[in-house]
Amino acid sequence: MSTNHRTNNYLRHLESMKILPSGAGRIPRLNAVILGESLATEENDFVVPSQDFANQANVKSPEQYLKMYKRSIEDPAGFWSEIASEFYWKQKWGDQVCHENFDVRKGNVNIEWFKGGITNICYNCLDRNVEAGLGDKVAFYWEGNELGVDATLTYTQLLHQVCQVANYLKDIGVKKGDAVIIYLPMLMELPITMLACARIGAVHSVVFAGFSSESLSQRIIDCKPKVVITCNAVKRGSKVIYLKDIVDTAINDSTQNGVSIDVCVTYDNKLALKREETKWTKGRDIWWQDVIPHCPTTCPVEWLDAEDPLFLLYTSGSTGKPKGVVHTTGGYMVYTATTFKYAFDYKPSDIYWCTADCGWITGHSYVTYGPILNGATVVLYEGAPNYPDAGRSWNIVDKYKVSIFYTAPTLVRSLMRDGDEHVTRYSRKSLRVLGSVGEPINPSAWRWFYNVIGDSRCPISDTWWQTETGGFMITPLPGAWPQKPGSATCPFFGVQPVIVDENGVEIEGECSGYLCIKKSWPGAFRTLYGDHERYETTYFKPFAGYYFSGDGCSRDKDGYYWLTGRVDDVINVSGHRIGTAEVESALVSHPKCAEAAVVGVEHEVKGQSIYAFVTLVDGVPYSEELRKDLVLTVRKQIGAFAAPDKIHWAPGLPKTRSGKIMRRILRKIASRQLDELGDTSTLAEPNVVTELIELADS
Ligand code: PRX
Hints:
binds adenosine-5'-monophosphate-propyl ester; acetate-CoA ligase activity; ATP binding
């Protein structure tokens, strides 16, 4: 069948299912290219999987996708319980596969999947796979920061190490439901500790090891963990980061705020720092290597209800305090495993590398749980992608024969800037599927990823999802989808995206608006830790009856979704979510800062960068030293990744007469779109704008 023919068939199916607006897909206007035969270019708006790829794929055609999608919407209970039955359940769930109230107007929002089912995700990741004969298969290839430093762990070895950590945690009194904070870099000990917590029903909360001591202590104070697990230091690129010092400061802070930590387990990372040079608090600190290897390598699992919490992961919102997103056991297990399998067209022979850190949701769902549930071989990389040079990623791909490579647009853009020669000197012939996550991928970066990295051979799964959604929501299925550079394409099974206008009214067909989801999916978060009210207010009240994602989105005439970025006060820097209020509150904590307003501006590599307008306390002069000090304050309070790229001195901020800062105007000034400032007549002091423009490049 010709490519155009296949694509047009597909569009007609979409239309008949009412995913597409009526009329779309009738006109044979496609100018599609076949993967492996030609390049993705400006003119070609569809990129269609080759017949060879489609033939071997888990979902081989648009028709097969549509059939499965239709079933998942019409009979979610049947669809998901069939998949769930492939896992081990000590006891099957009750009669109702899903119980939900998604509509705040009808009472408290409540989501339950597989309630009454008794299982354990660690058991399903490890024991089940070992019993199925995967014991000698490699679970993790670990690649250290330095060339030539690596390690391997089979499924049996992983199970043993997980049991040792689980036994140790039990020995020190960690029980089902207790929180455990993990502040580790990308060592194998990070997923090992996550799985160990899951095995005993402890709730892990991984804090990205790039967060500052203040951010860490804020999280410790919020979830009151029984234990903190860290390592003394790590080398990232040519820099050594002294993690234990950060943890010490955080624990001191939290102790002063009434939350003390009795045990701090510290992995001795000899490659970064000598044991004797590590600061130590006797009685509280304990070396990982002194206790874990002595623990037994078997450990019974704690059987959990499907709705028992699995983990807690803090993410940024539009107010200052980070939100503790809570995911539970059963639905998350089924959803991450299924999305991984289909969106990456996973096969048991694949070698999979996701460049995300386990400190973010991507590292939870698609470094640890999703792939390990599928019995996959996963590459973990400790270091920086451009160390010792910009070709390191492809060196790793060739070394381990990586076949599925999943990364963020920011990395794609930065490698693109470094030049093709760093890519083309490596073979990369093992690659077959590429993935993108974290922010919209601009079509030019998409094409470079596709044409240069993937040699015009590998479909790209541009996966749209969030910490809150647990797993992919809108994503191509690589064997089935004609792709469009820059579009996350169409919904995953069971997901019903809708676009609403500002009044919360669903818009049909080709349109732009706010992206919401109708009805729950198994991987959805169930609450915000200790604050169900904030959960409802943030996500379910803006557009009653729907989950509101916080993202803007368009749907084109073919029914494809195009994410346009956050519509709330959240900035996405290199795929990391940062609340403007968090940065503002760090800035105003500086004694010389009277007021601050932060906006995001477009950035060539990072997607967005942080631009801060700062008003100083009366009489304090502007100075380069003060500028640096303000940036340092943000680095110290949140982490280096949240540092503003620009501090714009502001004698005053544009406010309405009721005192509200007009960010719309600030965004225009920050991006130097000075002829698009719009109406400034409602400002309390209109000349503030002129002063700000004058100071723009000072
Ligand atoms: O704005 C969207 C963007 O990242 C946000 C979610 O951030 P976080 O919870 O940190 O999770 C990141 C990893 C899933 C979303 O609200 N985003 C994520 N993936 C995409 C994206 N924007 C466009 N396209 C994507 N593929």
